[in-house]
Amino acid sequence: MKNKDITAVLFAVLAALFYAVNTPLSKILLEYVPSTFMASFLYLGAGLGIGCMYVFHWKSEKRSERLERKDLPYTVGMIVLDVAAPIFLMLGIKMGNASNASLLGNFEIVATAIIALLCFKEKVSKKLWIAIGFITVSSMILTFNGLDGFRFSYGSLFVLLATLCWGLENNCTRSISEKSTYEIVTLKGLCSGAGSFAIACIIGEKLPNIKYLFYAMLLGFVAYGLSIFTYIKAQHRLGAAKTSAYYAVAPFIGAALAFVLFGDGLTWRYLIALPIMVIGTIFVVYDTLFQKHS
Q: What dihedral angle (degrees, nearest 10) is formed by the CA atoms of 226, 227, 230, 234?
């Protein structure tokens, strides 16, 4: 691998590590913050945090690095999808199991890769297709909620909706990843946060104690702001499908934290789905590290 590729991989892994804390810590804060306001302040924390960093950086940027009118469709798409995705995720976390929700986050790899193939003509190797198969099967097991009438977990379905939104959003962001990372993350955070805030007000959610909003914004700065920032840096070099592959690390860390924090029980679904997800993840990492496509 070239030095630039190694740096991009490090950025991708950092993005996954930053995001890993999102699900278990959000589960705690959702006891005090309504779901839509939670989504709002996570993104506002990201936008304000990276925006403060941007103040010290914008003078050194070239004009060509800033977003232009031709980037508007992808920018708007990115923002709209970032309004919907965290709301779905917060609902899924609140209704379901934090460890399941963390593991289901890997379905974002499937969504990103397929959309990258169909819409943006990125190449998907045989190994990545095998990984997609394993991850999809694992996600189906986690979503299935028992033999009684083939019931499904609504919490898991909401998490899957979030990953689909983020899969499409990853590809929108990929199209403008050559532009200023600071500007992209600041716009993404502030605009998506404001959109979720407006929705929360319209549906009548009540603002919680200000200290919980501060905690949510702090979590948002790390789990969304720094994570998105390093993700875009990696995406510019690796592409949407490969960068999303490194997010495979995040769900396992998140699931481990969920077990520690909440003592989530090891259900039969989780015990079956985990090794299948691990196999899929191994194929993803192997494909990305060696970068040989057949």
A: -170
